[in-house]
Description:
By secondary structure, the protein is an alpha/beta fold. The chain has 15 helices and seven strands. It folds into three domains: 24-203, P-loop containing nucleotide triphosphate hydrolases (Rossmann fold, 3-Layer(aba) Sandwich), CATH 3.40.50.300; 209-275, no CATH class; 278-346, Arc Repressor Mutant, subunit A (Orthogonal Bundle), CATH 1.10.10.10. The strands form two sheets. The chain has a five-stranded parallel β-sheet with strand order 2-3-4-1-5, sandwiched between helices. A two-stranded antiparallel ribbon has the order 6-7. Helix 3 (82-92) runs parallel beside helix 5 (125-138) and helix 10 runs antiparallel to helix 11. The longest helix is centred in the last third of the chain and has 22 residues, at 255-276. The chain is globular and about 75 Å long. The mean pLDDT is 91.
Amino acid sequence: MAENIKNPFTLDFGREPYEMIPRSLLMGELVSSFTDDHPSKHITIITGVRGSGKTVFMTSVCKRFQSEKDWVVVELNPDRDLLQNLAAKLSSENTLKEIFTAAKINLSAFGLGVQIEGTEPEHDIEVALTRMLTSLKRHHKKVLIAIDEVSGTPSMKVFASAFQIFLRQDLPLFLLMTGLYENVRALQDQKTLTFLYRAPRIALTPLNIGRMAESYARIFELDSESALDMARRTKGYSFAFQVLGYFTWECRNNPARIRAEYKQYLEEYVYEKIWQELSAEDRRVLYGIAKNPGGSVSEIRAYLNMSSNGFTPYRTRLIRKGIINGDVYGVVRFELPLFEEFVLENYIPEA
């Protein structure tokens, strides 16, 4: 491990790191579904716990489509007026601006573009976008919209309803969104947006431990057994891969400090936020799981004095949130590294 080389790991959320484990199969499937001659889907929703790599994966997908000459990639801010933002982003591209000008689409009423002589300005943003997208279709262009961390905001509801109309008009539009499970579920539960239930959801699973071990072995010049042990300490959690790698690089041969920094960073930047968003009963169930390290559901239920019917909804929700794993029948385990310790240290019974 050369002393003068920059740390290849990052602690920044969302930014594509220099050293990362690609999700090649998932990427290939998603790209194929959107680029097919007759696409079977125009929307994909990526979910996962905080730090699971949703934003990084979406960024990788966007970069892949940006390399295609017939694709236009637009990333929208979920906190802004999404339809207005979409029109602004499309009209700011020089090549696209020429297409819209030739089609005499006057966007001056929205503060976009320039006044077109002899042409009335558009006053309805959906009508304007319909004309813009129709023009792009004539030029064999397709538009991929990417929205990170969606939730059921008024702007998102309006945008989703308009998107459904655009699809019915067979316009060349595709949508990639990321979001926490509970936020995506709240959005799908809106009465006018039930079509989103049919949208494929990709729940990001842990990264491949073997690939992580190969990365650690190469960077830190470790033997295969030591590298595999290091990778297993992350449980395949994307953010943990970066954090453990970062502090192993920075702290060098100080295992105690590496573990302390690793644990503290996960807790302060991810786990405390996850904990705050849980209900009191969710926390009690997690404490019961932490107090029964074998993971036996029957032992956990007995400890919590809960019936099977009472325990199951919490188990299901915590699995969907990406906090626990229930792949083995009758057993649940923590999906996040060192989260068991965090629960034991932070749980305070309700008075």
